[in-house]
């Protein structure tokens, strides 16, 4: 059954499955879907990776990494294979087969904790940024970094939908550099400014490549034009999510169609902005867009991720919630 991606289908999203942690002190720190949209993985503070069958709405199994810790688990394009960052020992990125829990390869080179890791949407490469103030590009077929660049400050990385461009966003510099994958050694093809002092932990391109979302940790989110870097608007108001502080991969994300942004809010709701309603952006500075509607059903939606193949939203903190539309 096909469902149109629009306001009418998004507003019908309701929690369909909830998975409670075995330990209430455990917190989820990252979410990712595979290319098919069938499988979902999360990394946890309990030093484990959880595998779900998102299509069937079932929990498969935990994969433990007690010796090395784990964060930023990301699927590769080979089904049930993933890379993840170690949080203990040697800051190595590990390439793991979830089929038999065996390691395929180790990617060594970072001297401090890896705080951002993304797999290219089209190629068998991935980008990483570390608190050692370096940015690296890796090929899954070899353990040696293909490219390394001093980033001067810790950064966050993201690929555009084509996989041809990687964004390197520095919070302390207030700069997002766009670099073509084929010309990494050259100067950025574009550099966009972010307000100084703006705290963020995620940069994401919309699937149609029109926008860049800069996901705030305690302020309004920023929506930039991906071609000229101009501020389209601020998305707010955002209420800071109270409680424990753990690493995460951002509390806002684009809808698959690129016309909506979903964000967790400290009031226990999910705020949803309709980007097609540009006429509703106020003319004063800063430009500002208010949520079109809200969703309820998760008391603390600290992280969000959309399934790339199905109309399914995931929210997570200590519990993981799967959302699907309540159809007529």
What does this structure look like?
WD repeats lie at residues 107-148, 254-283. This protein is mainly beta. It has one domain: YVTN repeat-like/Quinoprotein amine dehydrogenase (Methylamine Dehydrogenase, Chain H). The chain contains one helix and 29 strands. The chain has one helix spanning 7-10; strands at residues 13-19, 28-33, 39-44, 48-53, 58-64, 71-75, 81-85, 93-97, 102-107, 114-119, 125-130, 134-139, 145-150, 155-159, 165-170, 175-180, 190-193, 200-205, 211-216, 221-225, 231-235, 252-254, 260-264, 269-274, 288-289, 293-296, 303-306, 313-316, 320-325. The chain has a five-stranded mixed β-sheet with strand order 18-19-20-21-25, with no helix packed on it. Strand 20 and strand 21 form a beta hairpin. The longest helix has 4 residues, at 7-10. The chain is globular. The model has no long low-confidence stretch (mean pLDDT 90).
